[in-house]
Amino acid sequence: MIVRILGEGQLRVDDSAASELGELDAKLEATLERSDEAGFKSALGELLARVRAIGTPVEPGALEPSELILPGAGATMTEVRKLLADDGLIPG
Amino acid sequence: MSVMKRVSMMFRAKANKALDRMEDPRETLDYSYQTQLELLQKVRRGVADVATSRKRIELQMNQLQQSSDKLDRQARDALAVGREDLARDALTRKAGVQGQLGELNTQYTTLQGEEERLTGASQRLQARVDAFRTKKETIKATYTAAEAQTRINEAFTGISEEMGDVGLAIQRAEDKTEQMKARAGAIDELMASGALDDMVGGPRDDIQAELDRMGAGHDVEAELSRLKGELGQGSAPRQIEANSSGGAAAGPASDGQAAQAPPPAQPADQPQAGEGT
To answer: pTM score, two decimals?
Structure first.
């Protein structure tokens, strides 16, 4: 499957990693719910690091939508909430 | 629900909305390609903008560094002539300048990061746009409505996700650049108004003025007594020349005062009164 890290581009990740990434993602979700900015930062960092470690960059000419999209490194909770809000941050 | 899934759904929803607006899929392709080219232009401008801001900060950092060096020299000079008070003053100001420098440095690093990120985004988008153009022509050439629709949707969703991502990167860089511009502007204004000048040197640098005065102290005394001697010999009428220089009255007038009375010798008094060491 293809995972996009916002601001970095797309990575191809083996489907078998889905459950592992899902767990990290759930951790991230939890920090968002309890508005734990520090926890959010470290959970996001962990998730991004894992994706980068197991993924290979998608060839530049590819035009495929991503199955999963991750906020970029350094994103704040506020930014991510806006991203998730209807008609939020996403331009176009 | 998962953050990753929700974000990707938001991107898809955007793409679908845009797709729905077009009646003929082939129109979608051409319209989208236009938008992509515009976005590419925008990213390139964004990169240039960030670079300009970064260079401006660089200049300001150089200026501040020079000020800091100068204050450091002044502190040494002041200590060498036994003026610990002046040295302390210079070092306090130096600390202020260093603080500014530190903050600028942090922001400089941030801007550098944005510049790299945008450059990368611009390259990725360029590659995707090229791919899209090829695909668009192929699809149009082999166009049969039913089959083309799904391929168009796929390509469009792919490119629109890339565009959304790049769009976010631009927004982010724009925000950062605006912040930097505001800050750089504030520092420029401070320098122009002389507020930093005082701290930093230039014509209003009172620490340097006092150091100079002390160094020149003996010469001034000698000059004064020479002038007094001349005046005693009766060359007083020469002072009337001050009137002939009309507009520039300030300079000659104060010269006249200096010659007539000794008040400017003040600085020479101060070190005696407050002898520190």
So the answer is: 0.64
Q: Judge whether B29 lies within some domain.
A: yes
Provide the number of structural domains found in chain B: 1
pLDDT tens-digit map of B104-157: 898 899 888 888 888 988 898 899 899 889 888 888 787 666 667 777 778 888
**Rounded to whole angstroms, how far apart are CA atoms B210 and B241?**
30
The angle subtended at Cα B269 by Cα B263 and Cα B271, nearest 5°, is 150
Q: Per-residue pLDDT tens for A33-78?
A: 999 999 999 999 999 999 999 999 998 778 888 989 999 888 889 8
**CATH code at position B104:** 1.10.287
Residue B276 belongs to some domain of the structure: no
State how far the alpha carbon of B268 is from the alpha carbons of B130, B210, B260, B261, B272, in Å: 77, 10, 18, 15, 7
| Structural tokens at position A33 | 């719910």
- B18 — contact with chain A (CB < 8 Å)? yes
Domain range spanning residue B116? 19-166
Nearest to A61 among B5, B6, B127 (CB): B127
ipTM exceeding cut-off 0.90 for this assembly: no
